[in-house]
Amino acid sequence: MVKAKEYTCIGCPIGCPLQLVHKGSKITEISGNECDRGAKYAKQEFTDPRRELSTTMEIVGARWRRLPVKVTGPVEKGRVLEAARRIHTVHVTAPVKIGQVLIKDFLGQKGIDVVACRTMEAIV
Ligand code: SF4
């Protein structure tokens, strides 16, 4: 049976309304996109949806108690909550430099790390 799904492209501020037509797992048509990025986005959302993840991590010995962090690659949509919880169970100790790898190969994904989004000096 032919079905359709609708997405809004997040590739740029235009936000094109996308329609993806599929028969089971086979994509038969993608429309509504003004450029190729929209088609690529709809295909990704249909086959393997992922989300960028930025959150905070506990930091000890710094002026503030939470350090902004991000995951360097998109996380499977179904694992975003697990990913956030995992980050919230660990802490780092100051000083931390922006870009510093805090968790390597996060969730078993080689080359995907959790990194610091800002520098925090140690307080004395
Ligand atoms: S399809 Fe292209 S033009 Fe439309 S929102 Fe996506 S990136 Fe922007």
Set down the secondary structure blueprint.
Blueprint: E1 2-8, E2 17-23, E3 26-31, H1 36-47, E4 50-51, E5 54-60, E6 66-71, E7 75-76, H2 80-88, E8 91-93, E9 101-103, E10 114-116
Parallel strand pairs: 5-8
Antiparallel strand pairs: 1-2, 2-3, 4-7, 5-6, 6-10, 9-10
Iron/sulfur cluster binds at residues 9, 11-12, 14-16, 33-35, 37-38.
Into which percent range does the helicity of residues fall? 10-25%
Bound molecules: iron/sulfur cluster
So what's the overall shape? Answer: elongated
Extended strand count: 10
Oligomer: single chain
* Rounded radius of gyration (Å): 19 Å
CATH top level class name of the largest domain: Alpha Beta
The largest sheet is:
5 strands, mixed
- Outline the low-pLDDT stretches: none
The separation of the N and C termini measures 66 Å
Query: Reading side by side through the largest sheet, how are the strands ordered?
Result: 8-5-6-10-9
Global mean pLDDT? 97
What portion of residues belong to β-strands? 35-45%
- Please write the string of helix (H) and strand (E) elements: EEEHEEEEHEEE
Query: By helix and strand content, what is the structural category?
Result: alpha+beta
CATH topology of the largest domain: CPE0013-like fold
Name the CATH superfamily classification of the largest domain.
Answer: CPE0013-like
Number of domains: 2
